[in-house]
Amino acid sequence: MIEITPVLDSKNDKPLYIQLANYIKQEILSGRIKPKDKLPSKRRLSNYLSISLNTIQSAYDQLCAEGYLESKPRKGLYVTHFDRDINLNQPTLVKSEPQQKSAETKVKIDFNSGKVDLEHFPYAIWKKLTIQSLYEDQANLFNIGDPQGEQLLREQIKTQLFASRGVRCSSDQLIIGAGTQSLIGLLCLIIGKENIFALENPGYHRTRIVLEDLGAKTVAIPLDEDGITIQELRISGANVVYVTPSHQFPNGMIMPISRRMELLKWAEENKGYIIEDDYDGEYRYKGKPIPSLQGLDVNESVVYLGTFSKSLIPSIRISYMVLPPTLMKRYKEHFTVYKQTVSRLHQDTLYRFLKEGHWESHLNKMRTLYRKKHSTLMLAIKDYFGEQISVIGEKSGLHIVLEIRTNMDEHELISKAINVGVKVYPLSIYYQRESPGSRILLGFGGLSEDEIVTGIRLLKEAWSLI
Ligand SMILES: Cc1ncc(COP(=O)(O)O)c(C=O)c1O
């Protein structure tokens, strides 16, 4: 049956049959119902729309009288074939964008920093565990769950966090959420949007946008080679600071322990909060591991944020935050009214994945794999560009920054790369004031080693540096 699903309003001044006739007329004029299409029988449409046969009859009569429909004896009602150009009262429709054959469609190698390796994702295990989450004895999972997230999953995350990042917490301090931005939004409400939030500059624009959209005041704090500058933070008037100490986003430096201690001291002196976003702390290629700020903190001033977007897959949308007891108390008192944003089924599957040790073995496999990709990338950059390029932030994570010795700005570098089928990314969106100069962002997690080498070779061709 052709689709006829009007919204009919019995309180409207127009009788129902006119509303239905007008709807069908618009569908014919817009081409969604085509000439020679057969309309459903009166009885069928009456059952389908739950309105009386008389209303359908009157609407069809009206459309026949206006010439939109014709009745064929013993066959039914059909849309009349007429020249659609003569229907001048056709409504303006929102047209979908014409399919542009833009330069984007030629992209062969995409150095997107949000992508991870999908070839080695354990599909079979994930599928098996997903099916287990759907077993009948799990039927309670179809009901709304705990606003904080599934208790079993929180227990598992807590245990893993302590082992891998030195984060000390109880499962009751954990809140699960569908992505970092959604958690930042909730956190801003818990901390209070009347506070001033200090942000790294350059820094993660998605955090800044959420805070500003919620009406919080933000201040941009410059970085030095160790990360956020404490001197500037002190004079900013802020009492909350958001940082990415394991791998500064986007510049990639790892905050040394001395700067971490200074930051914790700032929080203690100002009765402030530090939001530690440890988005890809699992991947480190050089240097000793440095404990998380949360693990070093003795004043309950750190909120720890983590995600499975880098260590598993970004589309699963499972991230989490660990709140210090004071903020947890506020959450329990005022914010459990916000329902959990992650599907209980995904949470349950992830719980099984963690409990059975698959996450740990996946992570170990990925660490080796990304280490290989990383050294291939570094080698290719050295081979093709030598001294013409400096690499920034290469000690950990799944992206690096390239500083190119050239007069070309970021825009020119990106468009020249696109011309040879390579997509590289701007840094300017992460800066609040100044421009990054001749620098671009390069993610490598989603590319194979061959693609990485080809991509760098093509970049050399595109930028034709002497
Ligand atoms: C700085 C930063 N934080 C967090 C994330 C992860 O975000 P989500 O948990 O929403 O996937 C990313 C991902 O690219 C990031 O760059």
UniProtKB/TrEMBL annotation:
Cross-referenced CDD domains: AAT_like, WHTH_GntR
Gene Ontology MF, one: DNA-binding transcription factor activity
The keyword DNA-binding appears for this protein: yes
Domain HTH gntR-type per the UniProt entry, residue ranges: 14-82
One protein family per Pfam: GntR
Keywords carried by this UniProt record: Aminotransferase, DNA-binding, Pyridoxal phosphate, Transcription, Transcription regulation, Transferase
Cofactor(s) for this UniProt protein: pyridoxal 5'-phosphate
Keyword Transferase: yes
Family the entry assigns: In the C-terminal section; belongs to the class-I pyridoxal-phosphate-dependent aminotransferase family.
Name the UniProt record assigns to this protein: GntR family transcriptional regulator / MocR family aminotransferase
Phylogenetic placement of the source organism: Bacteria, Bacillati, Bacillota, Bacilli, Bacillales
